[in-house]
Structures are given as C-alpha cells and as structure tokens.
Design a protein that fits this description.
The complex is a heterodimer of chains A (about 190) and B (about 180). By secondary structure, chain A is an all-alpha fold. Chain A contains three helices and two strands; from the N terminus they run αββαα. In chain A, a hairpin with a 5-residue loop joins strand 1 (about 20) and strand 2. Chain A starts with a helix and ends with a helix. With about 180 residues, chain B is α+β, with helices and mostly antiparallel strands. Chain B has two domains: about 5-100, Peroxidase, domain 1 (Orthogonal Bundle), CATH 1.10.520.20; about 105-175, Glutaredoxin. Chain B has helices spanning about 5-20, 25-40, 40-50, 55-65, 70-80, 90-105, 120-135, 165-175, and strands at about 105-115, 135-145, 150-155, 160-165. The relative contact order of chain B is 0.13. Classes of the chains: A mainly alpha (about 190), B alpha+beta (about 180).
Chain lengths: ~190, ~180
Amino acid sequence: MNVLGIAVTAGHFLAGEEIVVDSQGHVTTHSWILPETAEIIWGGLASLIIFFLLVKFAGPAIKKGMAARTQRIQDQLDGAAQAKAAATAEAAQIRQAKGDIAAERSRIMAEAEAQAAAIRQDSAARLASELADLEAKGHADIAAARGRVGDELRSEIARLSSAAVDHVVSGSLDESTHQDLIEQFISRLEAMA
Amino acid sequence: MSDPRIDGYARALFEVARAEGNIDTVEDELFRFARTYESNDDLRNALTDEMIPATRRLSIVEDLLGPKANPTTTQLVSMVIGAGRGRDLPAIVDRLVARASTAKSQEVAEVRTAVPLSEDQQARLAAGLAKATGKQVNLKVVVDPTVLGGLVATVGDTVIDGTVRTRIDQLKSRL
C-alpha cells in the first residue's frame, strides 16, 4: 500500500466509514466514480492548503518569472522588429545602390564609348596626317635623291671633262708652244709698261 | 702673321750668307731648294721625321746639296734641319729672300713656269716686271709642271697670270 492508500485508509478510519480491504490488500470503495466522503474532505483540505501555499509562496515567483519571460519575449519581438526594420532599410539601400550601380555602369559605358570614339577619330586623323607626312617626305627624298644624283653626275662629268682637257692640252703643248706662251707673256708685260 | 722664331732664323741665315759674301747665290739656291722641299712629300717627310736620327737627316741634305750647291747653302739648310725646324724651312727661306731683296731695295718676284727659262728670258722678264710694277724685282723662277704652260708672276700682292692652267680653270668655271 502506498502513501495515498494509507492516507485514504486513515481518512476512512477517522470518518467512521467501513473500510473494505480484499485479501490482496486492495481497498474497495462504495462507488466506482465518487471517492469516499472522507477522502473528499481530506483531499479538499489538502488541495486548499497546497493551493494556498502555491498562491502564497510560488505565486510571486511565478508572476515574476512570467513577467520576465513576457519582457524577454517582448524584447525579442522588439529586436526582431528592429532587425526587420534595419533589414528593410538595408534592402532599400541595396536596391537603391543597385539602381545607382546600374546608372553608374550605364554612365561609364557611355563615357567609355565616347572616349573610344574620340580615340578612334583621333587615331584616324593622326594616321592620315602621318601618312601624308610620310608621303610628302618620300616625295622630298625622291626629289633630293634625284637632285643629288644629278649633281653627282654633273660633278663627275665635269671632273672627267677636266681630266680630259688637261690630258689633251698637256699633250698638245710642245716645246715651241711653251716658248710661244712665255714670249707672249713677256710681250704682254712690256706692253703693260 | 709674323712668327718671331721664323724671323730669327731668317735673320741669322741672312747674316751668315752676307758675312760669307755670297748672299745672292745662297739666297737663290735656298729659294729653289725650298720650292723643291715644298713639292716633294717624301723629302719633306724624311727631313721632318723625328724618328729618323738627326745625323741621318743631315746626311740626306749633304747628299742632295753637297755636290751641287754652295757649301754655305748646305750648311744653312743643315742647321735648320738639325735644329728640328724642317717644317718651317720654306717660311724661313721666304723671309730670308724677302730680307735680301729689301736690302737690295728690290721686291721678290716669284715666277712659276712649266719649262725652264733661258737667261735672256729671265732678264727680259725681270725688266718687264719692273716696268709693269714700277719696282726693282728680285726674280725667282720656279719650274712647276702643274701650270701646264705659260707663266704666273707674283710681285708682292700683284699677280700676273698667263698660265694655261688658269685658262682651263676659267673654262671649267664657265662650264
């Protein structure tokens, strides 16, 4: 028999009720659903005492725990709300930044294309200018080379002509010619006087 | 531009020749040797090369001039070469000739000709130059085949050119 059984038996005994116990020690009540009167009385008193003790001593602690839990949950709810607001703001910023990035990308692309176009145009103009310069220089070089070759040719002709004249003249000057030239010079001197 | 060293050598050579009493001969021989020296690269290089011993250079002078020239001429050239002044020899001789001419109240008349002149031609040439320039001239004849033919006379700053070379050069210029 357990402690409750003992207490119930004791209650029956104090209430003057007949207690029926079988051979195996099991207590048999008069009703299958209603406890014994004594059990109701004692059980009720015990329940009231326990309820009172709970209200008296455990109530504030429970209240405090509940309040703390409520506050903690409220704090968590507030934190979650704040986190949600922050996330929403950040999402807005990200969306804005994304929009800005797209606009910046478009601007950079447009600027790059403009620069590329300018560079292409500038390169084309410079190339054309260099080609023109090269062509002009080529014409000038050709003209200079033509003139130089002509000069060299004239110089060579003059040199050969000079050598030929020297050769012919020196070969044609015999002794009598030399003497004639000397006499002509002396006569010229005498005439000058 | 006058070089005091060249003037000093020229004065020394002139005084030696004059002291020896043969200034005309020595002057003439020195003039002709100087012209030969100017036109002959091998001779000029041999007499100015300091790697050749001085005794060897002097023996070259002796071999060239000894048998033909006046001993005073040979000694004066040897003195200049031996003193290591071979490069200045033509200038020294020209200064000496000018000094000798001045002493005789004459002007040096350098005549370049393709062929040698006879005594008669030289005399008539000197007379003609004297008349043409109004100065007494000390005629110095240089045989120079590069003139081809004719003569060119230089008296001081006056040049009278009758060479074939000059006529050919004028023709070339026109061409």
